Amino acid sequence: MVLMSLNEINQQRLMAIAKHSIDNGLTTGRPLSIELADFPEELTEHRASFVTLEKNHQLRGCIGMLEAVRPLVKDIAENAFSAAFRDPRFPPLSRDEFKDIEIHLSLLTVPERLLFTSEQDLINQLQPAVDGLILEETYHRGTFLPSVWEQLPDPKTFLRHLKQKAGLPADYWSDNIRVYRYRTEVIILAPK
What we know:
The protein is built from six helices and eight strands; from the N terminus they run H-H-E-E-H-H-E-E-H-E-E-H-E-E. By secondary structure, the protein is α+β, with helices and mostly antiparallel strands. It folds into two domains: about 10-110 and about 185-190, Glycoprotein, Type 4 Pilin (2-Layer Sandwich); about 110-180, Hypothetical protein ph0010, domain 2 (Dna Ligase, domain 1, 2-Layer Sandwich).
C-alpha cells in the first residue's frame, strides 16, 4: 500500500460511488450512472481500480481492471456493481448482506515490468505487503493485489499461488514469463 494521492473528500466521493452503485444494483439491476461533469478532474482521469467486498473478513466479491480504460469514477461504479453481482465465485449480493459488507477500493498505479534472470531473482525483488503483481505466460494471466500478502506473506509461496491463479502449475518456470509490479492506494469502508 502507498500513501494516498487523493484527499479525504475525494476518497469519500469514491466510496460513496461504490456504495451507491451496489445499492442501485440492488434496486434496478444496473450500476450507478455517472455524469463526469459532477466530479473534479482528479476523479475523471483514466485510472485502473479493483473493488473488493468482504463479509466477516471473508472475501465476498472482487472485480477490477489492470489497465486504465475509463475514468476512475466510472471504473469504481462498474467494478463495485460487478463485485457485488457478477463475480462468478459468489451468488449475487442480497439486500440483507449489504449492511454487513466491508468495501475496499484499490486504486492501481501504472504497472511496470520487472526484469529478472531467474525465478529466485524475481522472488528476491518482491516487496511483501507492497507489491501487486501481474504474471503473464502465453495465454495465461493472473494478478494478486498487495492485500493478498496478508494471506501469503512468503514471496515464494505468493508467486507459486499467483502462477496457479494464472492457470499454470505452481512449480512452473519459463524464461518467457513476464511479471509486472504495481502499487495500490486503498480506501476502506467498514459496515456500521
